Amino acid sequence: MSYKGNFKVWRGDADGGDLEDYVVEVNEGEVILDIIHRLQATQAPDLAVRWNCKAGKCGSCSAEINGMPRLMCMTRMSVFSESETITVTPLRTFPVIRDLVTDVSFNYEKAREIPSFAPPKNLGLGEYRMKQQDVERSQEFRKCIECFLCQNTCHVIRDHEENKENFAGPRYLMRIAELEMHPLDEADRERAAQEEHGLGYCNITKCCTEVCPEHIKITDNALIPMKERVVDRKYDPVVWLGNKLFRRSGSRH
Amino acid sequence: MVQVQVERFDYDVIVIGAGGAGLRAAIEARQQGKKTAIISKSLFGKAHTVMAEGGCAASMGNVNEKDNWQVHFRDTMRGGKFLNNWRMAELHAKEAPERVWELETYGALFDRTKDGKISQRNFGGHTYPRLAHVGDRTGLEMIRTMQQKIVSLQQEDFAETGDYESHLKVFSECTVTELIKDGDRIAGAFAYWRDSGKFVLFSAPAIVLATGGIGKSFKVTSNSWEYTGDGHALALRAGATLINMEFVQFHPTGMVWPPSVKGILVTEGVRGDGGVLKNSDGKRFMFEYIPDVFKGQYAETEQEADGWYADQDNNRRTPDLLPRDEVARAINSEVKAGRGSPHGGVFLDIASRLPAEEIRRRLPSMYHQFKELADVDITAQPMEVGPTCHYVMGGVEVDPDTASSIVPGLFAAGEVAGGMHGSNRLGGNSLSDLIVFGRRAGLGAAEYIDALEQRPKISESDVDGAAARAVSPFDFPSSGQAENPYSIHAELQQSMNDLVGIIRKEEEVQAALDKLAELKERAKLVAVEGRREFNPGWHLAIDLRNMLLVSECVAKAALLRTESRGGHTRDDFPGMDSKWRNTLLVCEAYDDGARVTPKEQVPMREDLLELFELSELEKYYTDGELADHPQRSGS
Amino acid sequence: MKAGVGAPDRAQISERTYRTDRWWAYPLSTGGILLFFTAYALVRYFMNNYYWAPEEHYLTPLYSPCVNAACVPGSSHFGTFIPSYASWIPLGIITFLVLLGFRATCYYYRKAAYRSLMFSPAACAVPEPAKKYSGENKFPYVVTNGHRYFFYAALIFACINIYDAVLAFHGKNGGIGMGLGTVIILINVVALVAYTLSCHACRHIIGGKLKHFSKHPLRYRYWQFVSKLNPRHGQFAMISLFTVIITDAYIMAVSADWITDLRIFN
């Protein structure tokens, strides 16, 4: 049942670091985070790792396991063979603090740049009425646990540091989509999505969707619908002409 | 002596903890015009509240119009076996609906009823469908909603001052080690950044504790590493008192296999939506475990229980939805009697009761959790579940209306506050507790500051002392073997689990106290290697002090209370004793440890008492207490 | 490596990727398919021949509709309203542009092409080679925003293809008949319709753009239908690519008399 597994774990900080080899006991039913904890308790007490719930609900223990961005608590050891050497590194898109811990403040800064929910002014407490079918799209996006794996894997910023300034990343473009589809939100968000938050950088290569531990269809259900809404507003000559002629206020129904 | 370099900040209100209660308190304090800081051990938005699954109890009456605050109040008092602070239970039941509706104005998207209102689901101990929910991730929705409300407030401040953080700032991954006082008043808090290990000093006249619970002192727990009882311990050391610490809730359904996920929660929503508990004989055993106080309120046949899901007016609810303490004890007994599942739990079956599609829709994260962590498909197989340490009913003794502790300037809300839930909390009452008393604590802190004549001052010697205590784990002991914090923690968890766990008896609790005394001595020799930058060994060494102190309160109170009630079950005193009903066990810091003394609670207000039938009260109250009851004195 | 994952402050890791799975399989195979189809289509369009099997009434989708005055007799189901032009310009130029436009701006093919032809990125968490990246903000990529117009056109062409398929039930001796070609054409039409209806722009237009589904119950139902197809848009895209090639190749072979159509009846 139990065996000795080979691991390479990145140790270091902003000044430098390297993979270090460890041999750790692996038991049935364990996940990568268990191994990291065993490492801490037995061989490397100061190994830095960020984690909270260990149940895939808080999104703290993001790392790259064999090069793939994943939650350590949701990566079962049984998906690897016993002879395999497993590599664990910190996220490679954000500045490293120490070992497996990175500075994810980029994401919190981006969160602040997205205009918040604009509630209807004429409704008091308890007067909100929304149909289930109208809230379902946004509810999918609200499953997000903010593990930032999508932000980490998105090549727009992963491979191009300079784009960080102008690109909110999948998580926050999805936040715009969530508010845009919120049945009672009153703000106008389409132009800003493209012009201020960098929706146009997205080339829908779907890595955000691929790594999402909550299985949110970020690209198909949030980013592409947002792109289409931007087209309605910005790029569609027919809609533009229609609005000019009939003075309609866009696509708000 | 270390050279102390300390970053310093001035705030009006400091909220320690960024879970539901902390965020709601911070929102309130900021809206009252106070400059507010939130200090969190984790990243912003990761708090333990995200783990809450089932829902948030509020008697909005959207699904069953008969529901109102009085019914909710009664359910809460029953659930807590009438030991609750009745004023808190009253405020909670009255204010919960407004607090939930308020979340909608922040952008929350709860599941809806057909007519577009917030949908409400059934839960253990609640008479009517009462829990506002979003699938089985209600806690996540609440934390995210309040996180986003805070961002929204910061955006308002940015528009006004050009600085997002001018009035409301989140200090994430920052741990408070000590509260600092000026005379008898709160003056500030001393903390360290987890990433750099550097020290921070917050000066503030009012502090709201919202640090959650103590579950990490137990081995099998649904709680995360943050739940080390920091707030409980900070309050004790600052001179505040804790009550009800003997009442620890073991959630009846935690995962039992594989070992690495043992304790992770399986939401009560599974049972609310039709799941039933079975033993290894395939028998629905809960029918055998309806206690006398609940006789007549629960279905006695499977047929009636099954009918209840569709027709609640003509059927009584299934005993699978008895309050958590009852269900946890029942599971424990089944396992002990040899009728458990292969991995030492019982079976929770929803697969045979709902279509697969429906299960995935109603319980998406449960489906996900079992699929990915245990390789079990809950739409095809039963789950294996067993009790897990989930919640502590006990906490800081507070004034119900203002959430103020006995220390001026120190407030507490959420799990770290005691009283509201009595001896046992109903599922769903925690999320509503957070927002009702989170808001009251923020308000209480703001009012306290307004009435304050002079801002308290922090003395430098207190700062130096706090810094020295914080770094002491780096000093290897001059004599004797240095101790590893991980080993001490593991031993603490094991003894609390085995000796002060779900079923207690005098010798075992006494043995736990002896063990605690030993661990406390050994903890003084704890030494850690490495530097201060993100050093988990050091962090644990600091948290360990809190866990040991709080565990002492739990064990001492558990030893003193010679009856079984709610979350406290004594094997040697199996019955509930009316003489104990009104007695609170108060824990305070004493010497190097804790001291527990009994105290009488204020009797319930007349109009509230009249909400109950005399016959029900007689099950809990002593004859003397009921002598003046109108139904008795009148007859 | 200075840019991207090698940027200062990030964890200094020398390897480009530690992925151990066969991440290169998708870009390799997809790239191969895309290049093959492009080459095949170019050859076929410039062939300007073998697009109509007169006895069986099979018209290849690559040339449909044939509306040029130079189209061979019988192949023009909608008349020949375009005068003949220089013979080196393919007869199916309009069809080619619609087909290419719809597929090139398609959200699935964009992913496929960015990954396999431009390595941007080749696979998740594998660094891309390009130094600069501006996404779909600038020309020519900004043109992809016009996808919905190609969708409208593709929808019309899909209808034409359905009409062509009906005509392919033509008996060799007159009346109704059916051959292997008819079956192939039919399968292709089904694949094309599935691909066209599962399109993201279609999903948006049919209902996705609405803020309140509850106020538009009928469009909500359409949207739900398209939303069921949409997750398989990529599969339909690839399947229809092959069915188009197979259909065209079969009709070409029949038309050129390289093979004889296998008749099921008449």
Biggest sheet statistics of chain A? 5 strands, mixed
Calculate Rg of chain A over CA atoms. Answer: 22 Å
The secondary-structure class of chain A comes to: alpha+beta
First-last Cα distance of chain A: 59 Å
- Got a strand count of chain B? 20
Structural class of chain B: alpha/beta
Q: Which chains make the largest contact? A: A-B, 60 and 73 residues
What oligomeric state best describes the polypeptide chains here?
heterotrimer
Q: If helices are DSSP runs of H or I spanning 4 or more residues, what is the number of helices of chain B?
A: 20
Could you say how many structural domains of chain A there are in total?
A: 2
Number of strands of chain A: 7
What does it look like?
Chain B: Residues 489-596 form the Fumarate reductase/succinate dehydrogenase flavoprotein-like C-terminal domain. Chain B: Its EC number is 1.3.5.1, 1.3.5.4. Chain B: InterPro entries: FAD-dep_OxRdtase_2_FAD-bd (IPR003953), FAD/NAD-bd_sf (IPR036188), Fum_R/Succ_DH_flav-like_C_sf (IPR037099), Fum_Rdtase/Succ_DH_flav-like_C (IPR015939), SdhA/FrdA/AprA (IPR030664), Succ_DH/fumarate_Rdtase_cat_sf (IPR027477). The complex is a heterotrimer of chains A (253), B (635) and C (266). Chain A is α+β, with helices and mostly antiparallel strands and 253 residues long. Chain A has 10 helices and 7 strands. In chain A, the strands form 2 sheets. In chain A, strands 2-1-5-3-4 form a 5-stranded mixed beta sheet. A two-stranded antiparallel sheet of chain A has the order 6-7. In chain A, helix 3 runs antiparallel to helix 6. Helix content of chain B is 37%, strand content 16%. Among the domains of chain B are: 15-209 and 420-458, 3-Layer(bba) Sandwich (FAD/NAD(P)-binding domain); 262-387, Succinate dehydrogenase/fumarate reductase flavoprotein, catalytic domain (Flavocytochrome C3, Chain A, domain 1), CATH 3.90.700.10; 605-634, no CATH class. In chain B, helix 3 (86-106) crosses helix 11, helix 5 (230-237) packs across helix 15 (536-560) and helix 13 runs antiparallel to helix 14. Chain B is α/β, with parallel strands linked by helices. Chain C has one domain (22-129, 137-265). Chain C is globular and about 75 Å long. Chains A and B meet through helix 1, helix 2 and helix 3 of A and helix 3, helix 4, helix 10, helix 13 and helix 15 of B.
